[in-house]
Amino acid sequence: MQRVDPQLPAPEQPVALCPEYIEAQEFQVNSRNAFSRLLTKVKKANKSADKLQRAKDDLRQAGELVRSKRYVFCAIDIEAYEQDHSILLEIGWSLYDSKTDQYMDQHYLVNTYRHLTNGRYVSDEKLRFAFGTSVWCSLDQALKELRKDLDWCVQCDGGFVLVGHGLDSDLRYLQKAKFGWPCANGFGDTLDVNQSALVTICNTDEMYGASISNLHNPPSLGSTLGLLGIDCWNLHNAGNDAHYTMLLFMELIKKVDNQ
What we know:
Elements: H1 32-68, E1 72-81, E2 84-97, E3 102-110, E4 135-137, H2 139-157, E5 160-164, H3 167-176, E6 181-182, E7 189-190, E8 198-203, H4 204-211, H5 221-227, H6 238-257
Parallel strand pairs: 1-5, 3-4, 5-8
Antiparallel strand pairs: 1-2, 2-3, 6-7
Helix pairs in contact: 1-4, 1-6, 4-6
């Protein structure tokens, strides 16, 4: 190697050409089957890497949305009867208005199934809502109240951001209940949340996985809260879970901002 300027001192340490290095693994390819196994392994690794990168991009986007102070974020949680998941016992949601930095929590209990309680597989905490007053009503009325809050979001901001920890299951519950999501123009509704005024979905389980660069086997809501040092009580109450999911969401945003 030749220096550009002979008068310049040589660096004491070699200059890194790449900020990160990936440990490579040796793999012997001596047959068609060995090559096929290698190709499968590479495709799987690339798929995992792409999924992790998308999760990291989504995590950064979530932070940008909070900092933009434009939308209301809505964390939703639903508790179903443990012996029949088609029966919905509770629904709770937590709203965070990024423009005013204000929170609002709601918790509704379905009076049709007042006599049903969990406790065999998950704890029964439905009467221990810690962030407001629980309301007994029909499932239809509870869904109407959720729709009112989402309509308010759309009227104010043109859309809403959904937050959840493993939100896919809650969305399936709402779809089976034929919940109508408000459309972007403020008129009508749709059963498909992706065709609604939805801005984006922020899954805190994937956000946590992105923050530690590991999406494999994401921990439960309670475990994730514990890992981040967030105190919580009476989980498996839909209102409490929605509230703590929103706290987890905000803590993950702060964690990324501080990196």
